[in-house]
Amino acid sequence: ARLRVCADGGANRVFDGMPDLLPGEDPDEVRVRYKPDAIEGDMDSVRPEVKEYYSSLGTQIIDDSPDQDTTDLNKCISFITRNPPGPDNS
């Protein structure tokens, strides 16, 4: 994917689950390889250590907690619409 966006709780799933899918590889290397470009949502579900980990890798954290009228999925779709992936993103 040229643009990887997670809803806030989805970031936990990527952090925990990706290393399990590649058991022969170093978990930290897997997490770096599959890091999201952005985590979007109201930040009620992402664990603080996961948020800090990805933030330290340059993942954009978008706290959209004032907007409680749309789901985190809708917020992610809106983010992608506003930031379409370009050919230079990997």
Brief account:
The chain has 90 residues and is an alpha/beta fold. It contains 4 helices and 3 strands; from the N terminus they run βααβαβα. β2, α3 and β3 form a beta-alpha-beta unit.
What does this molecule look like?
- The protein has 4 helices and 3 strands, in the order βααβαβα.
- It is globular and about 40 Å long.
- With 90 residues, the protein is of the alpha/beta class.
- The chain has helices at residues 8-21, 27-33, 48-56, 72-82, and strands at residues 5-7, 38-41, 60-63.
- InterPro entries: TPK_catalytic, TPK_catalytic_sf.
- GO terms for molecular function: ATP binding; kinase activity; thiamine diphosphokinase activity.
- It holds the Pfam family TPK_catalytic.
- It comes from Aegilops tauschii subsp. strangulata.
Residue share in β-strands = 5-15%
Enumerate the spans where pLDDT stays under 50 for 5 or more consecutive residues. Answer: none
Compute the number of helices: 4
Q: What class, by secondary structure content? A: alpha/beta
CATH topology: Rossmann fold
How many domain units? 1
Number of strands: 3
Helix content range of the residues, please?
40-55%
Assign the CATH architecture: 3-Layer(aba) Sandwich
Largest sheet composition: 3 strands, parallel
- Measured between the Cα atoms of the first and last residue, the distance is 7 Å
Radius of gyration: 13 Å
- The CATH class label is Alpha Beta
Please state the oligomeric state of the protein chains shown: single chain
SSE order in H/E notation?
A: EHHEHEH
The average pLDDT value, as a whole number, equals 90
GO molecular function: ATP binding; kinase activity; thiamine diphosphokinase activity
Domain Thiamin pyrophosphokinase catalytic: 1-82
Protein name: Thiamin pyrophosphokinase catalytic domain-containing protein
InterPro entries: TPK_catalytic, TPK_catalytic_sf
